[in-house]
UniProtKB/TrEMBL annotation:
Alphabetized UniProt keyword annotations: ATP-binding, Nucleotide-binding, Transport
UniProt name for this protein: Lantibiotic protection ABC transporter ATP-binding protein
Lineage top rank: taxon: Bacteria
Membership in a protein family: Belongs to the ABC transporter superfamily.
ABC transporter domain: residues covered: 6-229
NCBIfam families in the cross-refs: galliderm_ABC
PANTHER family: ABC TRANSPORTER, ATP-BINDING PROTEIN (PTHR43335:SF4)
One example GO MF annotation: ATP binding
Length: 235
């Protein structure tokens, strides 16, 4: 039997009468990289925002570590959704120090997360002068400050060059061995298939597949089947 860290049960979210997430039931295995896949507008970001408490579900339940989700669970969840929340005029270390003070975390955690994301040698360089890949890694470092059990990354490779993508791929793949489960949202199949253990494919807010990730053409074919099936029912 799988050890599930996070589960959603018939999760729904509607805006102005339009159902964006429709009876979504996910199961995220502990210490894995789970790919949440779908085309733009499929409901991926909305789902992640409900899991992290940014949005309230219209219906359904979320369970974390076997118990119904509460805001107390946020202490065990790290999040990077959309643009990293950085102070451009501060260095990487200063950006992290602001957060450790705000969260009441020990200062030693700064060096630990800088090493994890390979930003220990940036010195006094301001975050505004960082490459996009460095900014993404610093955003992940901020998400790791509270030593989370679950890390949620929404489209983390958007805009990165091939080197930045490769570096981020290796970083993400390293997390499960440190006891961190990752939910990785993306619409770029070729990137996701190289790092994930399992996937969920959603389109039109519906879950069309969940399980082991096939590779190459099989993944692309499965993805298109799920998207096409939901389009046929008018979604």
């Amino acid at each position: 039997m799988k050890d599930i860290i996070l589960k959603t049960n018939c999760l729904c979210k509607s805006f102005k009468g339009q159902k964006i997430v429709d009876n979504l039931s996910l199961e995220i295995p502990r210490n894995s990289v789970y790919g949440l896949l779908g085309p733009n507008g499929a409901g991926k970001s909305t789902t992640l925002k409900m899991i992290t408490g940014m949005l309230r579900p219209s219906a359904g339940e979320i369970y974390f570590n076997g118990k119904e989700w509460t805001r107390d669970n946020l202490k065990d969840i790290g999040v990077l959704i959309e643009t990293p929340p950085l102070y451009d005029n501060l260095s990487a270390r200063e950006n992290l120090k602001v957060r450790t003070i705000a969260l009441g975390l020990p200062q030693k955690r700064i060096d630990e997360v800088l090493e994890i994301v390979d930003l220990t040698n940036t010195g006094k360089k301001r975050a505004g002068q960082f490459s996009l890949g460095m900014k993404q890694r610093l955003g992940i470092a901020i998400a790791l400050l509270n030593n989370p059990k679950l890390l949620i990354l929404d489209e983390p490779t958007n805009g990165l060059d091939p080197i930045g993508i490769q570096e981020l791929r290796g970083l993400i793949r390293s997390f499960p061995k440190h006891g961190i489960t990752v939910i990785l949202s993306s619409h770029i199949l070729s990137e996701v298939e190289q790092v994930v253990d399992e996937i969920g494919i959603i389109a039109g807010g519906k879950l069309g597949y969940q399980g082991i990730a096939p590779r190459g053409q099989e993944l692309e074919s499965l993805f298109m089947q799920v998207v096409s099936a939901n389009r046929k029912v008018g979604i």
